[in-house]
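User: Reviewer 2 asked us to show a designed sequence for the structure in our supplementary figure. I'm pasting the structure tokens here. Could you produce the per-position amino acids so we can include them in the response letter?
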């Protein structure tokens, strides 16, 4: 039976910081033993989002949860606020920790980071992949028809993206992010959990968030999807602001992939790993162990 989370997790402190090749410092948490699993969180959030997974999946895996540069406990970097640099960070984290091969799980922008990783470095080091609720293109491109935009799950026009970018750089940045996140959860989320999500969101400097938003929203990953040759699990949410149609499209483009859509009653919005951690952990654990 599904049981909704009532409050935020008890978050462990980072295990340390790793220094990337461009000088950026990445805080990370690592727990467990067994096959390596690196989990990449979403835009303007933090690795603390995955505490339930760190606690449970570490029974079977060595789970590594970095705070993306400029997020959570990772200090704002001098640069590198692009999907390609974040993908290089993932590879460097694996290198620092001596992980020759690993599973990768991405959520939201973290999926884009993994797609960038595959685009740049291929799949030779990857065992299995989990993609959680990320469209393959966030912005309607010039000449893109309605059906194509719906398959992409595009959330923005060029004009609305520019407006959001400007709002994130204004004095209303905190309210802008809070309103944006408010559309990403189920209507009956426990208030303490939602307030904690907003607080974690606020740890990301507004300038970092704005810069990454542009890179995140202007990369078209559709040509990468058919090149994915590793077992993949695609997770969507019936109540998510990300249209489930886009997640079914991603699933359809990756040969042999598995699709699971969380219903609204199951906590199927943008944060299923927080709203329905037990169900999420069972699904991901079973997939990775198979």
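Assistant: Here is a per-position design you can include in the supplement:
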């Amino acid at each position: 039976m599904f049981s909704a989370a009532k409050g935020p997790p008890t978050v462990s402190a980072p295990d340390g910081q790793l220094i990337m090749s461009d000088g950026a410092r990445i805080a990370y948490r690592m727990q467990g033993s067994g096959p390596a699993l690196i989990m990449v969180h979403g835009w303007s959030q933090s690795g603390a989002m995955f505490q339930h997974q760190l606690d449970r999946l570490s029974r079977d895996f060595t789970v590594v949860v970095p705070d993306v540069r400029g997020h959570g406990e990772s200090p704002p970097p001098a640069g590198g606020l692009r999907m390609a640099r974040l993908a290089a960070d993932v590879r460097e984290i694996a290198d620092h920790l001596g992980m020759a091969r690993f599973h990768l799980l991405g959520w939201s922008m973290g999926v884009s980071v993994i797609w960038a990783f595959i685009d740049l470095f291929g799949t030779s080091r990857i065992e299995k992949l989990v993609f959680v609720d990320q469209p393959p293109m966030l912005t309607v491109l010039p000449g893109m028809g309605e059906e194509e935009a719906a398959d992409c799950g595009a959330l923005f026009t060029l004009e609305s993206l520019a407006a959001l970018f400007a709002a994130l750089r204004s004095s209303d940045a905190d309210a802008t992010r809070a309103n944006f996140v408010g559309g990403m959860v189920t209507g009956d989320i426990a208030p303490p959990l939602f307030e904690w999500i907003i607080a974690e969101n606020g740890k990301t400097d507004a300038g970092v968030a704005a810069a990454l938003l542009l890179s995140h929203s202007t990369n078209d990953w559709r040509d990468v999807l058919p090149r994915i040759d590793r077992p993949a699990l695609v997770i969507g949410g019936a109540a998510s602001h990300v249209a489930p149609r886009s997640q079914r499209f991603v699933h359809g483009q990756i040969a042999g992939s598995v699709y699971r859509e969380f219903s609204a009653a199951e906590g199927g919005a943008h944060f299923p790993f927080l709203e329905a951690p037990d169900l999420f952990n069972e699904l991901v654990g079973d997939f990775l162990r198979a």
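For the response letter, you might also mention the following. The chain has a mean pLDDT of 95. The longest helix spans residues 83-96.
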